[in-house]
Amino acid sequence: MERKATILMNRYELGRMLGQGTFAKVYHARNLASNQSVAIKVIDKEKVLRVGMIEQIKREISIMRLVRHPNVVQLHEVMASKSKIYFAMEYVRGGELFGRVARGRLKEDAARKYFQQLIGAVDFCHSRGVYHRDLKPENLLVDEHGNLKVSDFGLSALKECQKQDGLLHTTLVHF
Residues that bind ATP, according to the entry (predicted)? Predict the structure, then answer.
């Protein structure tokens, strides 16, 4: 029996799930107009509202719009329904850096390239007052050309969140 395609907002055809976290699931999708592959992050509004994280979602959107860099996953658009928030983002075909590291030691030239791209992306973010605060191999993706892409700005902070004590203050929810 053939599965009926799920069409989101008359714009995207949803495909397989790529991953999930506490508040969101990420799916591979296809833009119906351009046929371009994208990643769609689907956030459950009810869960986010229940724990008071709507401001954090708004901050993540603002930050992703602010940091346009070749080594940062790009946000294409944000959409919403009554129960969900959708981020249409650049689809990074190669997966997490974590998977490459888990298979064994990286070759020195690849490790050097990833490190240089990571430092470039972090420097760019910091120059715009954005602090990621959750850099780890699971949030570093590698595209089909072997380029690193920083993803998941959900815990990031802006320079304006810095208080008199010099620390960044944002709401963190622990489970």
Answer: 41
